[in-house]
Amino acid sequence: MPDLNKPTRTETVADTMQLTAEQRAIIQAPVTHVAITAVAGSGKTTTLAHRILHLLDNELSAQRILVLMFNRAAKLEFEKKLRKLAMGSDKPGQPLPEIRTYHAMGLRLYKRFIEEGYLEPFNPKILSEGEIQFQLWRLIREVAPEDLRSTLNRDKKEHIEKAEAILDISKAQLTDFELTFEQLDIQPKFSFLKDVAQLFEDWRQRESRISFADMLYEPVKCLQAHEPLRRLVRDKMDVVLVDEYQDTNEVQHQLLKYIAGSRARVTIVGDPDQTIYEFRGASTDFILKRFQEDFEDPAPFQLTWSFRYGHRAALAANHLIGHNKQRRDILCRAHQSTPSTTVEVLNSPDEAHAIARLLQQLAPASAAAGATTPVAILCRLWSQAVPIELALLANRMPYRIDENKGALNNREVRQVLNLLRATAANWSALPFETRSEIMLEVLRFPHVAVRDDILRGLTRSLARIDPAAPAQLEQIGLTKLTCKAQYGISSWQLSRIEGTLAALRAATLSSGSAATVLSQYITQTDLLSQLGASALTTEAADEKVNNVLGLYYYIKVLNLPVMDTLQHFDELRTEAGLGNGQRSGSDHRPAIVELTTIHKTKGLEWPTVVVAGFKDSVLPYRRSGQGAEAAGKPTDMEAERRLVYVGITRAKDSLYLSAPAPDSGTGAISPFIAEMDLEASLAAADVLESAAGEPAPKITTAVVERYFGLLNSEAVETGSSDASASRPRPSLLSRVISPLHR
Ligand SMILES: Nc1ncnc2c1ncn2[C@@H]1O[C@H](COP(=O)(O)OP(=O)(O)OP(=O)(O)O)[C@@H](O)[C@H]1O
Fold this sequence. Notes:
Layout: H1 9-17, H2 21-27, E1 34-38, H3 44-57, E2 65-69, H4 72-87, E3 98-101, H5 102-115, H6 129-143, H7 146-149, H8 156-173, H9 177-183, H10 192-206, H11 214-225, H12 227-233, E4 239-242, H13 250-260, E5 265-270, H14 285-294, E6 299-303, E7 305-306, H15 311-321, E8 333-334, E9 342-348, H16 351-369, E10 375-379, H17 385-394, E11 399-401, H18 411-423, H19 432-443, H20 452-462, H21 472-475, H22 480-487, H23 491-509, H24 514-525, H25 527-534, H26 538-558, H27 562-575, E12 593-597, E13 606-611, H28 628-632, H29 637-648, E14 651-660, H30 671-675, H31 678-689, H32 702-713, H33 721-725
Parallel strand pairs: 1-5, 1-6, 2-3, 2-4, 4-5, 7-8, 9-14, 10-12, 10-13, 11-12, 13-14
Helix pairs in contact: 1-3, 2-3, 3-4, 5-11, 6-8, 6-10, 8-9, 8-10, 11-12, 11-13, 15-29, 15-31, 16-17, 17-26, 18-19, 18-27, 19-20, 23-24, 24-26, 25-26
The protein binds adenosine-5'-triphosphate (ATP).
The site of adenosine-5'-triphosphate (ATP) has 20 residues, from helix 3.
C-alpha cells in the first residue's frame, strides 16, 4: 500500500481551498480505518472529496475505491462536487471512483447472486409501501384471532403499523420476527402479527416481489449463509468511504463489513445529531460504538467548524439540540470565514401566502445569488406543501417539487375540485362523460363503500340528473326496494349514497363562497373522519386530512364563488403546465424554489431556507392516532428535534422559521421556537459580528457562554478570507420581515 504520509499535491489543493487543519488532517491521514464525527455543514463531503483526490494522487486506483452514499440526491451532489474538484486539479481527466447508494450496491449484489444461483429472479416492479400495507391488511383479516375480530376494523391502522414495523425492523436489524416483536415491546394480544409478517414473506416470495428493504436484506442474508458469496464480494476494494453514517442500520453495517473484508480500509463520517431515519432501524450506536468494535482501531477525527451558516443559525441550532438528553454534547460553531446568517421568525395567520410574499420580495436577490435553486421550503409532511405550492403558482414563482407530489396531482385536491364542479352553475352544460366521471369521484369522497363496477353504472345514471334536484335516487329508480335487486347494494350502502347526495344537494343550493360550500360538505358527510378511517396508516390518514384542510384554507383566503374558484384553479393548472394533462411547466424559467421535506435534505444546502410549520402537532409531529394506544403515544421529541436541527442547518445566508401569528387561531407556536432561544442567539451573534467587538452579550445562556468560550480558547484558523469572499451575502435578505416572536 502506498505511503500516504508524504506531502502531496492535495496540500496545494488544500491551500487554494483554504481547508482547515482539521480537514487537512483527515485528507492526509494514513490509509487506516477512520471514524469522523462532524457537525452540520463542517465540510464532511467536501473533505471526503479531497481525501479521494489525495488517495488517487498517491497511486491508489480509482477502481479500488468505493464511495457509499445514503440516497440518490446525496450521491448526485457528491458526484458533482468530486468532478468539480477533479476538474480544478492538475489531472482533470483522471478516472474517478464509483459512487453508489447502499441500495444500488445491494441491488447489484442481488443480481449477481441470482446469476450465481443463490437467489431467485424478481419482478422488477418494486413493492410500494401502499402495496405492502394492503397485503398486510388482507392477511391480518385472514388470520386475526376470534377475540380481536370485533375491533379489527376500528384498530386497522394500529394492526397494519405494528405488522409493518415487525417486518421493517426485522429486515433492518437482521433479527427474526419473534425477537423484533419482543424488542418493539408489543402487547401479547398482537402476537399473531408475527404470523402475518411470515405469511407476507411467503406471499412475496411466491409472487417474486421485492421491496426497497429487500434490496439490502436478501443479499446480506445470503452473504451470512454462504461462504462462497462472501469470498466473491470481499477484498475487492482498497478504500471504502461512507457518508451519513449516523443513519446506518444493522443490515448496512453488515454489508459494509462483507465488502471491506480484511483488505479495505474504511472511512466513515457522520453527525449523530442528524440521525433522522430511526424508523428504518438507524442508530447512532453504529457511528459511536459498533464501527469501533467491528473495524480494527479506527483513527478518530472531528470536524467542528461550520462553513455553511453563521453564528445566529449555529447558536439557534445549539440551543435547540441541547435539549436532547441522549447525545454527545458537542457544539457546532461558525468558522470566521462564514458570512453571517440572518434568522427570522415569520409569524403569520396564513403561512402559504406569507411565504409566497416573502419569496416575491427575495426573488431579485435570489436570482442574483446565482445558485441553481437559491431557496428551499422545507416541510415536515408533504401535505403542508399543498397550500404553499398553490400560493407559489398563484404568484408565478418558478419552483421544483418531487415528481408525484405536486398539489394539482394530489388525489384529495382533485376530489375537492370535482366536488366543486358538481355544485357549479354550469353543471348541466358539461359533457355527459365528464359529469359521470365527476359523480364517480364525488361518491368516492368519502367512499360510499360500493364496488367500483356498480358505482360506475350508478354514476352514469346520476350524471343525467341535476345534483340540486330532490329525491334523485327515486328518479333513477333506486329505492330501498330496488337497490338490492337492481344494483346489488345493501340498505346500509344506500343510506351512504343518500347521505352524500343530500350533502351534494345542500352544497349545490348554497349561495356561499366555495369555502362555505366545501365546509358544509365536509361537515355533512363527516368527510375528515371518513378519509382518516379509509387510510391504512395514521400518517397516511394525517396526510389525506391535511391535504383537504390545506386546500380548504387556501380556498378560504381566496374567498371566491365556486365558478371563480374553479377558474382560478384552471389558471393554476395552466401555470403549472398541466393544462393539456401533461406536466411540462408553463414557462422555462429556472426554478428558484425547491419545495421538499426535511427528510429529503440530507447533505444539501441552500442560500435561503424556509422551514415551514412551526406549530404544535406539525413540529413536533403528533400523529392523530385513532386506536387508544396510538393516541396516547408520546411523540419522540428527541427525534423531532434532530429533524428540525437538520432543517435549520441547511441555510447559508438566511433562515426563516414559519410559525402561526400569536392568537390568530391558526395553532399554537411550536415549542422548538422557544427552545432555539433566538433572543440570546441573535444578541450573542450581534456581539460576535460587531466591528467594535463588545466584550459579552447582554443576554446570556449556558450555551452562549460555552460558545464564546470555545471561540476564545481555540484560535480560529487564519487565511480563510477567500472562502468568505467567494460567497457574497445578498443584501436584500437581511431585512426584517416581521417582528421576532418571543
Ligand atoms: N474549508 C472550507 N472553507 C470554506 N468553505 C468550506 C470549507 N469546507 C467546506 N466548505 C463549504 O461548507 C459547506 C458545507 O460543506 P459540506 O456540504 O461538505 O458539509 P457537510 O458536513 O457534508 O454537511 P452536512 O452536515 O449537511 O452533511 C459547503 O458549501 C462547502 O463548500
